[in-house]
From TrEMBL:
SUPFAM superfamilies: DNA helicase RuvA subunit, C-terminal domain, Nucleic acid-binding proteins, RuvA domain 2-like. It comes from Sulfobacillus acidophilus (strain ATCC 700253 / DSM 10332 / NAL). HAMAP family: DNA_HJ_migration_RuvA. This is Holliday junction branch migration complex subunit RuvA. Residues 1-60 form the DNA helicase Holliday junction RuvA type domain.
Length: 202
């Protein structure tokens, strides 16, 4: 199973990107929020992925964060909701917008997504509401520790340059105890396991 790709972003448009990795051009369908987080074409990029395998087609879906992928998987787990419908809902509402619509029972907001009818919107609202247990906390981006300041901003930027996504970098910073930036970075990398997979050199 392909769960993550890292390489060079060679093309990007709303809903679709191409990532060149180890000499292979990988086409990925993406939701709107992922598109909005992308770096410029020609830059290194790392995406979490989910592979859809059909008899006549392999389809790779890309996400900027693990949370986006988790929401997508929850959506396609609902009877009648396929890849196109799930991406449509995510692109229309975003993760937080979807979470609020589910929590408040606002299925009509979900229905605004292209291709989503009333019955499907109601089913999505009901089933996600049951699965998520009425809370949206699990969908929130990890926060930095309360005392986070310029030092952690510096370490965060260093982790981004090393290829880590914001979410995993913030989780790592939540585990470190040192005060000096270099040592905080060293502890964060140790917690992360020594470093991400490096994107291929162009």
């Amino acid at each position: 199973m392909i769960v993550q790709v890292a390489g060079t972003l060679t093309a990007a448009q709303p809903g679709y990107v191409i990532v060149m990795a180890h000499g292979l051009g990988l086409g990925l369908d993406i939701p709107r929020e992922t598109y909005e987080r992308l770096p410029g074409v020609g830059s290194p990029v790392q995406l979490f992925t989910h592979l859809i395998v059909r008899e006549d087609q392999w389809r790779l879906i890309g996400f900027a964060t693990e949370r986006e992928r988790a929401v997508f998987l929850d959506l396609i787990d609902i009877s009648g909701v396929g890849v196109k419908a799930a991406l449509s809902v995510m692109s229309q509402l975003g993760i937080q917008g979807l979470a609020e619509a589910v929590r408040q029972g606002q299925w009509k907001l979900i229905q605004k997504a292209p291709g989503i009818g009333a019955k499907m919107a109601q089913r999505i609202q009901l089933e996600l509401g049951t699965k998520w247990g009425g809370t949206t906390e699990v969908l929130a981006e990890p926060a930095l520790p309360p005392d986070a300041g310029p030092v952690d901003d510096e370490v965060l930027e260093a982790l981004r340059l090393l290829g880590y996504q914001d979410g995993e970098a913030r989780r790592a910073l939540g585990q470190v105890t040192a005060e000096e930036a270099t040592e905080r970075l060293r502890q964060a990398l140790r917690w992360l396991g020594g470093g991400p997979q490096s994107p291929p050199r162009s």
